[in-house]
Hints:
74% helix
Amino acid sequence: MDVQLRxxxxxxxxxxxxxxxxxxxxxxxxxxxxxxxPVDPVQAYVGADMLQISPAQRDLIAQRWGLDQPxxxxxxxxxxxxxxxxxxxxxxxxxxxxxxxxxRFELSLPLLAIAWLLSGFLxxxxxxxxxxxxxxxxxxxxxxxxxxxxxSPPFWVALLLLxxxxxxxxxxxxxxxxxxxALAEExxxxxxxxxxxxxxxxxxxxxxxxxxxxxxxxxxxVLHSNYVLFARAQGESLAGILWYHGLRNILLPALTLQFASxxxxxxxxxxxxxxxxxxxxxxxxxxAALRSDVPLLVGIVFxxxxxxxxxxxxxxxSYQIVDPRIRLGGRIG
Length: 333
C-alpha cells in the first residue's frame, strides 16, 4: 500500500476513534449531570402555571416526556433512538431536536463565520503591527486593547455596544434577526445583515484579543532570532523580514489557535445572542437549560462537540497547505 495513502487512512482511523470516544463521554456526562440536577424538569417545563395543575396532570406530563423513568432506562432509550438517527423531541419547541438545531444553526452560522474570519484577520494584523513596533505607542495601545478585552465578560461588552450603537446612536437594531412583526419571506438580505452586524462585531471584538497577543509574542521571538539578525545585517527591510521570515513562522500557530477557538466562539455566542435576543442556537441553549429541556440540551451539547471537533480537524488538515513538509501522521518529509 502506498505510504501516503496508509498515512491518510491511519489519520482518519485515529480521528474517528477519538471522535467516538469524545461523543460517548459527552453523552454520558451530559445525561448524568442533567439527571442529578436539583431542578424539577416538570416544574421548569410548566413554569408559572405549576400551581394551576393537579398532581394527576403533573404525572401525565412526566409520563409524556418519559421523566418518570429511571435515568439508565432513559439514557438507553435515547441512545437507541440516536443510533437510528432520531435525536428526540424538544419539550420547549415541541419539534424534533434535529429540526430545532438545524433552524437555529442556520441563523447562528453567518454570525459565527463573520466573527471567526474577522477576529482571525484583525488579530493577526494587530499582532504583527504590535510586534513590528515593539515598545512604541502603537504596541502599547494594541496591548491595552487586547488585555482589556481578554479580561472582559462577553455579555458586558455586548451590553456596552448595545447601549452605544443601538440605544444612543440608533445605528443598529436593538434585537432580533429581522424587523419585529415582519414575515420571513418579506425580510430582505440587507435587513438580515443589518440585524447581524452588531452581534457579529461583538463576537469579533472579544475574539481578537487572544490571537493578537499570541501573534505578537511569536513574532517578537522571530524578530530576535539569529537568522533575522543576519538578514538585517544584509540590509533587508522590516517589510521584507516580516514577509519572508515572520509570516511563515507565525501562521501555523496562529491557525492552530484560531481553529481551536471554535469552542470559545460557540460559548460566546450563547451570551451574545441572549443579550441581543438573536434567535440562534445560543439562545435555544439558554431556553433549553432554563426549562430543563433534556433532549434539546443533550442534542445541542452533542452538536457543539461535533462543531469544535470539526474545527480541530480542519486545523490539522490546514497544516499541509501552510507547510508542505508536514505529512499526516506527524512526520516531516
